[in-house]
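Any chance you could type out some protein's one-letter sequence along with its backbone structure tokens so I can compare the two?
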Amino acid sequence: MLRNFRRSLAALVVFSGALTGTAEAAPAGPVDLGTLPGDDDSMVLAVNEAGVMVGLSSAGSNPRRDLPVRWDADGLITALPTPGGSAGQVRDINASGVSAGYVLTATDAVPARWDAQGQATTLQVPAGFHNATAFAISDTGVVVGNWLTPGNEYHAFRWDPDGQATDLGTLPGETWSMAEDISADGRIIVGGGQRAGANHAVRWVDGGPITELVPQSPSSGAHVVNAGGVAAGTLWETTSGPVVPATWDAGGTIHRLDWPSPHSVWLSWIGSTGYVVGYGYLTPPARSAVRWAPDGTVSALPDDGFGADVQGVDAEGTAVGTFRSRATVWYRNGPRTQLGLLPGGTRSEAYRITDSGRVAGRATTAAGKNHAVLWILR
């Protein structure tokens, strides 16, 4: 099975190599990335530019058991160790192949870091803190996540490569905060903090204190940040006004994105060069997938009036998502292309794309299972 997989992936690489520089070339794939032996489903949660992927291999449904796994650039799946526990999740991977997530023990969740060889290190959580989960890692090895304090309040934390863990605190007088993403250089952490009973977009810079990105807004959120420290999110300028999509540059300056609709919008991802994708109700009742150029201009991704979902975008503005139950690519200056299905499968979705043109997603097998898959665009 592995031999056949590698032969398939090699064919994809050779095929894609002949198409280098042709963004609208026919995509190759999907390749079934499989599961651990005996498991039912799998999912890629993150992929780096070297093509190394991390995610989950799962068994059962209620309850479901997740194991953290990694696929190398050739697509070989490996279980990551879960010291002290029997399950866990790996949520992110950096450019060096170091990944971060958490291990589930019989009583708690404990942050974990796996090195490029797959060896695990778990965080010694401070006394009284518990239910700690890590969600992102920088290229410098800084891990961020969230834990419950001794008073059972959620706080963001950072875990430095030297083993030091730091509670990132809250806005003045408040009780909770959450870290959601970190820039590649480890300087900028973005997330949310409570103020006056509402969530507010916040960030931490160079190890400094928590700061609001739009202190005058009644509510806001920043969920993703790209390698260069540009964050993306949404805000309300008045309590009754429409939602406004926005980015914040590395200096913290806000740049409002076009949104010619009074209806809701959500942002999914920001690419390395500043393209942003999301979805919202431009012309209800259908939900539109949209892409913003780095200058903030918005365009609806073609969906023939059926609606669509978009989850990822690369440096060229190529977006990936789902249209009519099929993984789909929208090229910036080209066509909408639905990606291939697994033999006997009927559904697929795409949610990550690298700048080198690898698309990670999920597709159903002939047996109706959901498997992680890979397509190659170029």
